[in-house]
């Protein structure tokens, strides 16, 4: 990033997800180097599996 203006933030609220599963999902995204532009698709796939 060249400047703070180029940074964007995106979030998603998932109801009924316990802290342990949320942590597992974050670890999965990090360890598998999921590109930022694909995190929502990966999250949707993971939520179907758990």
Task: Report on this structure.
The mean pLDDT is 78. With 50 residues, this protein is mostly helical. It has helices at 19-31, 39-49. The protein has 2 helices and no strands.
Would you spell out the secondary-structure blueprint of this structure?
Layout: H1 19-31, H2 39-49
The termini sit apart by 34 Å
Write down the secondary-structure element order.
HH
Uncertain runs are none
Helix content: 40-55%
Instruction: Count every beta strand, where a strand is a DSSP E run of 2 or more residues.
Output: 0
Question: Structural class given helices, strands, pairing?
Answer: mainly alpha
Q: For the residues shown, what is the average pLDDT?
A: 78
Count, helices:
2
Fraction of residues in β-strands: under 5%
Specify Rg, calculated over alpha carbons. Answer: 13 Å
Shape: globular
Major β-sheet annotation: none
Summarize the entry for a quick read.
With 50 residues, the chain is an all-alpha fold. It contains two helices and no strands.
Characteristic key phrases:
single chain; 50 residues; mainly alpha; 2 helices; 0% strand
């Amino acid at each position: 990033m060249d400047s703070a203006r180029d940074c964007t933030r995106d979030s998603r609220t998932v109801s009924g997800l316990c802290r342990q599963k949320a942590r597992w999902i974050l670890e999965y995204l990090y360890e598998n180097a999921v590109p930022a532009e694909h995190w929502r698709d990966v999250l949707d796939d993971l939520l179907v599996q758990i």
